[in-house]
TrEMBL record:
Organism expressing this protein natively: Thalassoglobus neptunius
GO MF term list: ATP binding
Protein known as: Cell shape-determining protein MreB
GO CC, alphabetical: cytoplasm
Protein family (similarity comment): Belongs to the FtsA/MreB family.
Record's function text: Forms membrane-associated dynamic filaments that are essential for cell shape determination. Acts by regulating cell wall synthesis and cell elongation, and thus cell shape. A feedback loop between cell geometry and MreB localization may maintain elongated cell shape by targeting cell wall growth to regions of negative cell wall curvature.
Originating gene: mreB
Amino acid sequence: MLNRLRDWLCPDLGIDLGTVNTLITLRGQGVVLNEPTIVARSKETRQILGRGAAIGKLAKQMVGRTPGSIEAVRPIKHGVITDFHLCEQMLNYFIRKAAPPKGGLRPRVVIAVPSEISPVEKRAVFNSAERAGAGRIYLIEEAKAASIGAGLPISEPLANMICDIGGGTTETAILSLGEIVASQSTRVAGDEMNEAIRDYIRQRYSLRIGIGTAEQIKIEIGSAAPLASELNTEVRGLDGISGIPRKATITSEEIREALVECLWKIVGSIKLTIEGCDPELIGDLADTGLVLTGGGALLRNAGQFFQEHLGIPVRVDDEPLTTVARGTAICLEHLHYWRKKFQTEGAGF
Ligand SMILES: Nc1ncnc2c1ncn2[C@@H]1O[C@H](COP(=O)(O)OP(=O)(O)OP(=O)(O)O)[C@@H](O)[C@H]1O
């Protein structure tokens, strides 16, 4: 009864504070907010545009199309807050949008953060969330939240491996008995793939394209392993020699070539994680395999590529963009159990 009243007045929130996307879940309701982690502000006054509303989807529409006086800023880079003030304003806006406050109560919040962030960086997340209106704050490692969201039996005495390929970081972890036993984090992820595509097209076609176009190409025809039927797309950019707009047709084979180095670096990071694990547990991985999550897992044939190069079964989660957020939602449902395991701070409820 008390729980229901509290849920109505001030629902608990789960937040996946990602480099590219921020997702918020409410206890019992699943994902209620999914917005780009971007803020648009005036360069001169540093005020957020649209009376503080140019955040998320609205700000993303402005990327690359802003006049010189406006900048679209991502307050998080490689999973770590780089602009505290902006992050706090963004979180405040998202929290209010997801769960408008009633009665002045502060919600309990579970936030997923990269596993290898420093104590100072953790403190920045606490402070930003607290100033944005959160009450008691619990931090959970992104890889653990992803494992829970993907339904892995992480409480069992068995090795389970997860690899979350996000926008700014790829987090790989092996978990057993509810804890991370080995992990690696690399900055090779979706953003670096976009840069690789942009550079490839500049070198191969002398065509200059923006990072947003490179991302669109990745989503439209990107793949990690050969496709049954290869794809192509028309790309518009600026001729690097004449400076005149020009078109070119790019194939999925070419994009695969552009992405191969990034993918090999991710394979290297997964192998390092395995090497850092107790040999007793490594044996389990031949059966339990690897689960891929994060937006990067949507690259066509990603499962096939990693399976071929790691020699263990690989499964892509059904909805990899929401796995971490769904993991935080499950933690909210069982907060009495999980809160003993979280790193917590805040005013309490
Ligand atoms: N279909 C797709 N194919 C390939 N990549 C995709 C696809 N859809 C989205 N992505 C990429 O997924 C990335 C975003 O994933 P995600 O939302 O999991 O990252 P994030 O949680 O914001 O980042 P991080 O975990 O690094 O903080 C972007 O780089 C985006 O380009």
